[in-house]
Design a protein that fits this description.
48% of the residues lie in helices and 13% in strands. It is α/β, with parallel strands linked by helices. The protein has one domain (3-265): Rossmann fold. Helix 2 crosses helix 8 and helix 5 runs parallel beside helix 6 (162-181). Bound molecules: NADP nicotinamide-adenine-dinucleotide phosphate.
């Protein structure tokens, strides 16, 4: 069925969410929660099979439309492709969730240049460009929300994951500035900052952190993020661990935080990232 034929519920009274990185982990939990709350959803990732499996799960449990599209958001022009795809399903987007991301650990000087480029493109360019594309219509309607998933890793610089932490710090600064700029205009800008969350993220990054006692579930992250939307809070942390991380990052000098974090994250000396 083509997108036009499928577009049977183009009804502005039904909220519509676009979720990136929805094939697994936190993004898949956003999809479950929002579909359960009556949203039609467009799910984006690269893994078609996982997206389709999730689509079937949501169609069994909820009565909403679920569309899936495979798109590599680390490519230039991915934001335009996302925006155009979204328009083939519904003209009005109520909620954009910029969630897709991946981790990289190790000595920066050894990291493959291609992965560095993908991360910068995916975490920063695609998020900023997508926000630029989706925001104006929300402002015109005085309605809508954009959630960007950053991380507690953005609260201070972290050796051996310098680039990752810096992209997340960028997302926090970008979202906070934008929230202030658009304040009172009916659109909510949220930057959600999970701590260690139990997903495939760490395995994909090839690193298992030493401290996993305080791992949070993706469901808890999503519940906290969505429950915070009505309050229009910009920076959202998860549970007491998140509040503690934020507080610590404000009172303890970054030099000390970096020394502690660097020790925790430092890879064994024989790790080869190439
Ligand atoms: N897990 C944690 O401890 C943690 C903590 C703080 C923040 N976060 C952030 O939370 C977000 C979600 O991570 P997660 O924990 O749910 O990890 P995950 O389970 O590995 O999921 C990552 C998602 O991002 C998608 N993705 C990755 N690269 C992509 C690309 N080039 N194009 C399109 N989609 C892409 C993946 O889809 P495909 O594989 O199908 O492409 C997958 O759906 C990330 O931004 C991450 O930085 C995670």
């Amino acid at each position: 069925m083509s997108a036009d034929e499928e577009c049977v519920s183009n009804n502005p009274s039904i909220p519509f969410a676009v979720i990136t990185g929805a094939s697994r982990g936190i993004g898949a939990e956003y999809a479950r929660a929002l579909s359960g709350q009556g949203y039609d959803v467009l799910l984006i990732g690269r893994d078609k099979e996982r997206l389709e499996t999730l689509r079937q799960e949501l169609l069994r449990t909820d009565q909403r439309e679920v569309w899936v599209e495979s798109l590599d958001l680390s490519q230039p022009q991915a934001a335009e492709a996302l925006y155009n795809l979204s328009g083939t399903y519904r003209s009005e987007v109520s909620l954009l969730i910029n969630n897709a991301g991946f981790g990289m650990y190790g000595e920066f000087a050894d990291m493959p240049m291609a992965n560095i480029r993908y991360m910068l493109q995916l975490h920063m360019n695609t998020v900023v460009e997508s926000t630029r594309l989706f925001l104006p219509a929300m402002l015109a309607r005085k309605q809508g929300a954009i959630i960007t998933v950053a991380s507690v890793a953005g609260f201070f610089p972290i050796p051996y994951m310098s680039e990752y932490a810096a992209t997340k710090a960028f997302l926090i600064a970008f979202s906070e500035g934008l929230a202030q700029e658009t304040k009172g205009q009916g659109v909510t800008i949220q930057v959600c900052c999970p701590g260690f969350t139990d997903t495939d993220f760490h395995q994909t990054a090839g690193h298992q952190p030493k401290q996993v006692f305080f791992a949070q579930s993706a469901r808890k992250v999503v519940q906290t993020s969505l429950q915070a939307l009505p309050s229009k809070r910009t920076l959202v942390t998860i549970g007491w661990q998140g509040r503690l991380s934020l507080w610590i990052s404000k009172i303890i000098p970054h030099k000390i935080m970096m020394a502690i974090a660097g020790k925790a994250v430092k890879p064994p000396s024989n790790t080869n990232l190439r």
